[in-house]
Write a sequence for this structure.
């Protein structure tokens, strides 16, 4: 037996145990008492079912994203045709297609060349004569849907981060759904308003004169409470939210509510200055989600790339508006298909019941192992305690969230850890009955038990991977705990106990095994 090798393994085990205990110390130590190298905050994050909060399930309207993409493509093609001086009689959308009428068949070649070079995502769907019928390719449609989901996920995450929720869960579920869990948030309506707001910001001119019905945006009520005013606005967009660099709440002036100050990008600042300078004396509509929140008069050229939105906001409304504007607009509408609020008292009850089940199960296992296997049972109990410590430390290090299914996974892991030690102890017992020495009995017992332990843990680990891959929410939490627990089980139940026996053998003071 190489005593040096045993000493290194023992030192590594002791160091790993101390590191795990220090890392988890904020969980048990009073606030304000901190060990050296320990994290500043509690590393164990509680899930929604333990802490309480709001659970929201959104679905993204990807069909609307495709429709909006088709509208933008129509505008881009019309503008490109105008720039290249290709005459177009009419260019309208009919369902999922774009129909273009050319005044002369001779112009068809020029428009087709332009479309091929600049818009490869458009395909022809039967175009006789001087009529071109265009549609988006299937690949383009699928890409638009995929981008809508990814952009919605990122936008929601940005909004929640600025909302100030600690440890939120924001993840994709299925093909078009997004799960949002907000621990500690007991006001789901504000969260829904913040997340679900499309936040499309536009600057357009108020239409002048009569005969502007074709240019009308729609009935857009001012954000001012009790105002029935409706505005006719031009369709031409002078600036959009894409040219917004920042949005901040400005303190309320005397007799006025808080305002939202907008800071434009460099290009947005140039466009704002140009548009305001060319339209001095006219009214500029600031439109948010198809509603005119204000329509100030342009008395002079606006330089510096800054503008202000006011609308009798309270501080919370102004802050939420600034958040959604900074985070950007959602690429497609989203709607809630599931909503659930867990109260903090229910969360405390869940914690108490979960901890109680963990303690009861653990105590019963410890008593049985110590009674049935004596000294070897006490060693197995120590390995079981190390298993729980390592498991919690690894979960905390990965930033995993502890949920009720996660606690169930820990309880299951404890059973599997004990099962591994039972296999080892029974094999060692058999070898001792055959009259072998303690060293020979341990070598044979660990070797014979290892094959069964390895195979059972590998199959369970694969099952956990499958659960994580195809499950959602609570199932994923259970799968994560199970997979991490299997690794820590093998480390503690097999290798840690073997290190102890090898250390005793290297000191030549293991004359018999209490088992």
């Amino acid at each position: 037996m190489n005593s040096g090798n045993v000493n290194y393994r023992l030192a590594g085990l002791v160091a790993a145990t101390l590191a795990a205990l220090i890392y988890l110390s904020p969980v048990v130590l009073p606030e304000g008492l901190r060990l050296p190298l320990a994290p500043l905050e509690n590393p164990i994050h509680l899930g929604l079912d333990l802490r309480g909060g709001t659970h929201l399930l959104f679905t993204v309207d990807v069909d609307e994203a495709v429709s909006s993409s088709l509208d933008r493509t129509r505008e881009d093609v019309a503008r490109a045709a105008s720039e290249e001086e290709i005459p177009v009689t009419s260019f309208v959308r009919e369902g999922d297609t774009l129909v273009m009428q050319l005044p002369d068949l001779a112009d068809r070649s020029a428009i087709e060349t332009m479309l091929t070079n600049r818009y490869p995502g458009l395909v022809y769907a039967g175009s006789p004569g001087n009529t071109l019928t265009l549609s988006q390719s299937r690949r383009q449609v699928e890409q638009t849907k995929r981008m809508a989901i990814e952009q919605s996920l990122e936008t929601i995450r940005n909004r929640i981060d600025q909302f100030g929720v600690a440890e939120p869960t924001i993840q994709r579920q299925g093909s078009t759904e997004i799960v949002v869990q907000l621990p500690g948030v007991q006001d789901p309506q504000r969260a829904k308003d913040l997340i679900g707001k499309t936040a499309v910001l536009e600057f357009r001119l108020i239409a002048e004169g009569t005969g502007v019905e074709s240019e009308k945006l729609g009935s857009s009520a001012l954000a001012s409470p009790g105002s029935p005013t409706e505005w006719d606005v031009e369709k031409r967009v002078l600036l959009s939210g894409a040219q917004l660099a920042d949005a901040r709440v400005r303190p309320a002036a005397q007799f006025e509510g808080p305002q939202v100050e907008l800071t434009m990008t460099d290009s947005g600042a140039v466009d704002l200055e140009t548009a305001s300078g060319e339209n001095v004396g006219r009214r500029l509509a600031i439109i948010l989600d198809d509603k005119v929140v204000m329509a100030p008069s342009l008395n002079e050229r606006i330089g510096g790339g800054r503008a202000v939105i006011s609308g009798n906001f309270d501080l919370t409304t102004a802050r939420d508006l600034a958040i959604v504007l900074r985070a950007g607009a959602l690429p497609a509408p989203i709607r809630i298909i599931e909503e659930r609020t867990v109260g903090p008292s229910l969360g405390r009850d869940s914690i108490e019941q979960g901890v109680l089940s963990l303690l009861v199960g653990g105590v019963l296992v410890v008593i049985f192992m110590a009674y049935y296997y004596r000294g070897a049972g006490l060693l197995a109990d120590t390995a079981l305690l190390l298993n729980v410590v390592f498991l919690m430390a690894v979960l905390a290090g990965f930033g995993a969230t502890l949920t009720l299914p996660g606690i169930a996974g820990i309880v299951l892991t404890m059973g599997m850890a004990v099962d591994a030690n039972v296999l080892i102890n029974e094999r060692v017992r058999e070898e001792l009955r055959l009259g072998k020495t303690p060293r020979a009995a341990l070598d044979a017992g660990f070797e014979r038990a290892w094959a069964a332990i390895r195979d059972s843990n590998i199959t369970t680990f694969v099952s956990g991977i499958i659960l994580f891959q195809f499950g959602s929410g609570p199932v994923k939490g259970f799968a994560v705990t199970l997979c991490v627990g299997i690794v820590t089980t093998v480390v503690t139940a097999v290798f840690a106990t073997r290190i102890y026996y090898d250390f005793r053998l290297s000191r030549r003071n293991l004359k018999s095994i209490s088992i």
Observations:
- Residues 210-226 have pLDDT under 50 and may be disordered.
